């Protein structure tokens, strides 16, 4: 989109606030605006919808990996570090989505309730209807997405039932009954699906300019192409689409079919696989996996960001934020000698999860792994995503030494901004950023809301559970096919035909382990690991390990123990909400 969405949304919300809202706030004497103004001033109504966009959790990085076995942080004030070490309560929850998502849903409900009364174009009835359809479709899609985030963060067992959140489809007013019980998890999922279906009916697959009347949907027949493009053209790229709705459906279904939620859900692994396949088929099948999907965040010579046109995406990214020019990520995560704070420190656990270059796990004798040279002949993604001892980084390709016997602040625990594990994060960071106080250079960045690799991994996991590694369920590819393609792209097993994958391709359990590990590697540091461990009912208490390197000897160390209770596979409803509303049930244990 040519305009910066955040800037527009803030402006519109400010205008809306200045106009007043008599339904909800008694305006000051000098403020004569009325809520009813939205019917003739569509920008004010649009502000309600844009509030949903400003609240999307993936508008920024959370780095919740530091609450898992993937990473720790040297930031003593990190909320994720605190919950991992025993301070997680219903009153202190950095993972809370109740407040944010419920507020977004309120604004979206207000928009959906009033949208049909708004005049978006007074001169052309068809244009007016197209605007209504598109904006309502966006609102339905966003509402479904926020419901998904509510379920992910707060769905859980209360008594003998798996519950979600109170389903609210109308805006709450001062006269509303706020004391509403949580609906069953499955009923919440059904509402997610219903909203996504509405979104798909109202929205185009993608926003693009058309040149032929034959491309115009039948319901808008007779509309000129330039009029159609005013509503559904490329200028609205990065707004919610039918394609995005299909992806959200796959994401939600994967969660609902997983072990932690399956008991209270009618969604099956087969459903999740089919929903993901619907997206993959639109992307060219298994061969549509972007060859440069490993470096979607790269700039400079990689040209993944710098070369993007207005509203365009690289092949790996389905939906993203606006592009911003800054160096904030690098300031937080570069090693100290590159003028960074070294905040996120990958663990030895994660490093050990990367296989050997021949595809075998490093605990398999066929891998050829050598403890004396642990980074030699490893999966290329290891050096691509993590700064190792001896790696080069930054605009001058400086060598980073994390060994304790090196005279550098990059070494293990040297200063407060040094690594605690012996590793620094490299993924997501642009190496052409210069953070030197004498010459700070900002570069282009964005956050993906949805990457295609995630959808391919959803299919692999769900298809393996539904039909096994090799069966296709009626599609043209299997879980095995997808994982083989992902590993080939990474440069794994190229010299031996990926012998390890071939050896397990008939074993559903072994393939499950491999798929989960590939998901861990491909999506590391992007905010997936915490939610994956919980939906799998996996162990949250793996100690976070690091390495002490001295005189070329690599000694494992325990950096941080985890302190999760068993009931914490499900997050809490905010304690303040439980105090206010008797009808709300808290999840067990909280």
Automatic annotation (TrEMBL):
Keywords: Cell outer membrane, Membrane, Signal. Residues 59-209 form the SusD-like N-terminal domain. It is found in: Cell outer membrane. InterPro entries: SusD-like_N, SusD_RagB_dom, TPR-like_helical_dom_sf. Residues 334-590 form the RagB/SusD domain. Its main location: membrane. The keyword Acyltransferase does not apply. Pfam families: SusD-like_3, SusD_RagB. Belongs to the SusD family. This is RagB/SusD family nutrient uptake outer membrane protein. It comes from Mucilaginibacter defluvii. The lineage of its organism: Bacteria, Pseudomonadati, Bacteroidota, Sphingobacteriia, Sphingobacteriales.
């Amino acid at each position: 989109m040519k305009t910066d969405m955040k800037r527009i949304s803030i402006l519109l919300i400010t205008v809306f606030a200045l106009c007043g809202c008599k339904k909800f706030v008694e305006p000051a004497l000098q403020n004569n605006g009325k809520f009813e103004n939205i019917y003739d001033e569509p920008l004010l109504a649009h502000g309600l919808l844009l509030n949903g966009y400003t609240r999307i959790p993936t508008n920024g990085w959370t780095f919740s990996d530091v609450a898992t076995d993937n990473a720790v942080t040297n930031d003593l004030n990190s909320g994720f570090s605190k919950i991992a070490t025993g301070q997680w309560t219903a009153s202190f929850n950095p993972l809370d989505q109740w407040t944010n998502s419920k507020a977004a849903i309120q604004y979206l409900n207000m928009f959906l309730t009033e949208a049909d009364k708004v005049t978006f174009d007074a001169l052309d009835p068809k244009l007016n209807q197209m605007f209504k359809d598109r904006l309502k479709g966006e609102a339905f899609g966003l509402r479904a997405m926020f419901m998904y985030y509510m379920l992910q963060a707060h769905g859980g067992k209360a008594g003998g039932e798996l519950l979600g959140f109170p389903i609210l489809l109308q805006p709450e007013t001062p006269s509303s009954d706020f004391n509403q019980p949580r609906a069953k998890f499955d009923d919440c999922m059904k509402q997610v699906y219903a909203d996504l279906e509405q979104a798909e009916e109202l929205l185009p697959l993608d926003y693009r300019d058309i040149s032929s009347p034959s491309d115009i949907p039948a319901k808008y027949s007779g509309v000129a192409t330039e009029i159609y493009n005013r509503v559904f053209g490329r200028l609205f790229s990065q707004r919610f689409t039918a394609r995005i709705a299909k992806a959200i459906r796959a994401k939600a279904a994967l969660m609902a079919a997983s072990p932690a939620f399956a008991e209270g859900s009618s969604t099956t692994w087969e459903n999740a696989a089919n929903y993901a396949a619907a997206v993959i088929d639109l992307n060219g099948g298994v061969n549509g996996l972007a060859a440069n999907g490993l470096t979607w965040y790269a700039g400079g010579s990689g040209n993944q960001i710098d070369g993007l046109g207005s509203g365009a995406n690289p092949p790996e990214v389905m939906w993203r934020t606006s592009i911003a020019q800054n160096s904030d990520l690098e300031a937080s995560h570069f090693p100290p000698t590159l003028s960074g704070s070294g905040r996120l420190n990958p663990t030895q656990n994660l490093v050990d999860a990367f296989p050997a270059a021949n595809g075998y796990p490093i605990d398999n004798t066929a891998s050829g792994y050598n403890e004396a040279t642990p980074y030699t002949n490893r999966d290329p993604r290891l050096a691509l995503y993590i700064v190792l001892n001896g790696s080069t980084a930054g605009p001058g390709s400086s060598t980073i030494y994390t060994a304790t016997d090196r005279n550098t602040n990059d070494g293990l625990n040297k200063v407060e901004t040094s690594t605690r594990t012996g590793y620094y994060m490299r993924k997501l960071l642009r190496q052409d950023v210069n953070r030197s106080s004498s010459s700070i250079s900002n570069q282009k960045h964005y956050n993906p809301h949805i990457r295609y690799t995630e959808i391919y991994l959803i299919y692999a996991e769900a298809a393996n559970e539904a039909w096994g590694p090799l069966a296709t369920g009626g599609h043209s590819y299997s879980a095995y096919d997808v994982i083989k393609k992902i590993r080939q792209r990474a440069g794994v097993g190229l010299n031996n035909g990926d012998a390890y994958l071939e050896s397990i391709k008939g074993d559903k359990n072994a393939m499950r382990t491999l798929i989960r590990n590939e998901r861990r590697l491909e999506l590391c540091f992007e905010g997936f690991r915490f939610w994956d461990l919980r939906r799998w009912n996996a162990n949250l208490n793996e100690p976070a390990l690091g390495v002490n390197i001295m005189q070329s000897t690599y000694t494992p160390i325990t950096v941080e123990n985890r302190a999760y209770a068993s009931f914490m596979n499900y997050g809490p409803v905010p304690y303040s909400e439980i105090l206010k509303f008797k009808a709300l049930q808290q999840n067990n244990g909280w």
